[in-house]
Design a protein that fits this description.
The protein is of the alpha+beta class. It has 18 helices and 22 strands. Strand 10 and strand 11 form a beta hairpin. 39% of the residues are buried. InterPro entries: ATPase_NBD, Heat_shock_70_CS, HSP70_C_sf, HSP70_peptide-bd_sf, Hsp_70_fam.
């Protein structure tokens, strides 16, 4: 722990690191592209400058010693963590060996063991990137864990011994930039995640933005001047708005006062708690929508929730608490854990467990997190073959068997997807890899085992092995561009329900196409067997061969849309191949 006065670092790290400007919200830039509409929207309200860097990466512009410097969000986070470690060591008077951090790993010369908390909706690529940065920095990442989950651990420390039977606990974590919700069942020291939900772009900063926009317009009406393009004025106004927001959590009215906001013009304006709620009501309701969606995913009625735990500084907002309490029919919210520190407490407890420093309360705790989306590979017909269903507890591992599509095929490409749609192209591509060295053989002979393995950090590793030769290929998903926001995930789940009929039709079509394709190749192998071909009249043999090749060529026609077309073609081909059908069973 560090003194309260050090908290300025969390809100304005550059005042300490650079003494020039106060960039924040680096977490909102991590893993995003400069062209992302959300980034572009935030840029208009930030008083610091963000430009496009290599590969569409957002870079923060800072004036350091009269020289312009460009830093990525990851570098900014690294500087913050390094400073935090120095401060902690100065306060404690000794070297910090273990640390927990609710952000991104940092560049530190001496190895430090850390537990990193991330958003519940960080996918495997983001988690892998987080762990990789820690490794590059010389840090040993003991565990990557979801923020609402560690808040649950903090809550559960004083409940484990008193808990009789299982209890359903909903964690509502509303912070500065994100909203996360998790529903867990706690019993006998086991924390089982039932469902997760969240929005990676909904939090206190968004509430500040609404106030800033409101007062920019008010200043414009009063003085006929638009200050939206003035970084210094925006920074000072934002600071006043954030202060007012905090005051309104305990008072029903306050005021915005900024001396000489622009060209010597002072600005003063009162604001009530009711007005603040009005400015942000649609955002507050979004928070409740996330809660409702999380319960729906878990197939649990809100009446079955025993405790509602609030975490994150923005959960202190009275209107948010009122909406949350009303949603749960007046149930009292659990505020026994400091909202600002609950994630840090839980992460520290997890670090203690992992490093063997358990006490009586920690000795029996087991945490089981879940995957937010189904994971699988693309198979014939552009169909999604799911290996790990949505909301599966991890760590987990599952295998599936696949084979070749063509004769003498010596390599297979595997495309890894996450999502809930039947067609792989409607889901999110995470990565791809190829298995080489498959012995030439007839299609369908090769036996390829594909394994999906999600570790304790939620990082996905995929491998494929030829069970005949033992040849193996694997991939760890690392593509940051594949990251899905909560809105993406919510949309994919919603679309899966809306387009169920369409997906069922696609499955029927894919099944009919595969049946026709298998039959055509089966008959081709049969007719090409000299022992069988010699028993047929030349004209009959030619007719069958021509029909088979016609169908195989016809299968490549992209205009085919109906399952009935494949079924009709199969009936037609069966009638042509009737003289050799009995021989085809051996292939």
């Amino acid at each position: 722990m560090v003194p309260y006065s050090y908290r300025i670092l969390f809100g304005y790290p550059y005042q300490i690191l650079f003494g020039y400007l106060c960039p924040w919200d680096a977490k909102r830039l991590i893993g995003r592209r400069f062209s992302d509409p959300l980034v572009q929207n935030d840029i208009n309200l930030w008083p610091f400058k963000v430009i496009e860097g290599p590969s569409d990466k957002p870079m923060i512009v800072v004036n350091y010693k009269n020289e312009e410097k460009h830093f990525s969000a990851e570098e900014i986070s690294s500087m913050v963590l390094k400073k935090l470690r120095q401060m902690a060591e100065a306060y404690l008077g000794k070297t910090v060996k273990y640390a927990v951090w609710r952000a991104f790993p940092s560049l530190i010369k001496n190895p430090t063991y850390i537990v990193v908390t991330v958003l519940a909706y960080f996918n495997d690529s983001q988690r892998k990137a987080t762990k990789d940065v820690g490794g590059i920095a010389g840090l040993n990442v003991l565990r990557i864990i979801n923020e609402p989950i560690v808040a649950t651990i903090a809550y559960g420390l004083d409940k484990v011994s008193d808990c009789i039977g299982k209890r359903n606990v909903l964690i509502f974590d509303l912070g500065g930039g994100t909203a996360d919700v998790s529903l867990l069942t706690i019993g006998n020291g086991v924390f089982q995640v039932q469902a997760v939900g969240g929005d990676t772009h909904l939090g206190g900063e968004d509430f500040d933005n609404r106030m800033v926009k409101h007062f920019v317009e008010k200043f414009k009406r009063q003085h006929k001047v638009d200050i939206s393009g003035n970084p210094r004025a925006l920074r000072r106004l934002r600071t006043a708005c954030e202060k007012a927001k905090r005051i309104l959590s305990s008072s029903i009215e306050t005021s915005i006062e900024v001396d000489s906001l622009y060209n010597g013009m002072d600005f003063f304006s009162p604001i009530t708690r009711a007005k603040f709620a009005e400015l942000n009501m649609d955002l507050f309701r979004k928070c409740i929508d996330i809660v409702e969606k999380c319960l729906s995913d878990a197939k649990m009625d809100k009446s079955c929730v025993h405790e509602v735990v609030v975490a994150g500084g923005s959960s202190r907002i009275p209107k948010v608490q009122q909406l949350l309490q009303n949603f749960f029919d007046g149930k009292e919210l659990c505020k026994s854990v400091n909202p600002d520190k609950s994630v840090a407490y839980g992460a520290a407890a997890q670090a203690a467990i992992l490093t063997g420093m358990r006490n009586e309360k920690l000795k029996d705790i087991v945490l089981l997190d879940v995957t937010p989306l189904s994971l699988g590979v693309e198979i014939r017909g552009s169909e999604m073959s799911i290996l790990i269903p949505r909301n599966t507890p991890f760590p987990t591992k599952n295998e599936g068997n696949y084979t070749t599509r063509y004769d003498n095929q010596t390599a297979i490409s595997f495309l890894v997807y996450e999502g809930e749609r039947a067609r792989s192209c409607d889901n999110n591509l995470l990565g791809q890899f190829k298995l080489h060295g498959i012995p030439p053989a007839l299609r369908g002979v090769a036996d390829i085992e594909v394994c999906f393995d999600i570790d304790t950090n939620g990082i996905l590793n995929v491998s494929a092995k030829d069970r005949t030769t033992g040849v193996k290929s694997e991939i760890t998903i690392t593509n940051d561009k594949s990251r899905l926001s909560y809105k993406d995930i919510e949309r994919m789940v919603r679309d899966a329900k809306i387009y169920k009929a369409e997906d069922d039709g696609h499955r029927k079509k894919a099944k009919a196409k595969v049946a026709l394709e298998n039959y055509a190749y089966n008959m081709r192998h049969t007719i090409n067997d000299e022992k069988i071909g010699s028993k047929l009249a030349p004209a009959v043999e030619k007719k069958i061969k021509d029909a088979i090749e016609e169908v195989i060529l016809w299968l490549d026609d992209p205009e085919l849309v109906d399952a009935e077309q494949f079924e009709d073609k199969l009936v037609w081909l069966e009638s042509i191949c009737n003289p050799i059908r009995s021989y085809g069973n051996q292939y």
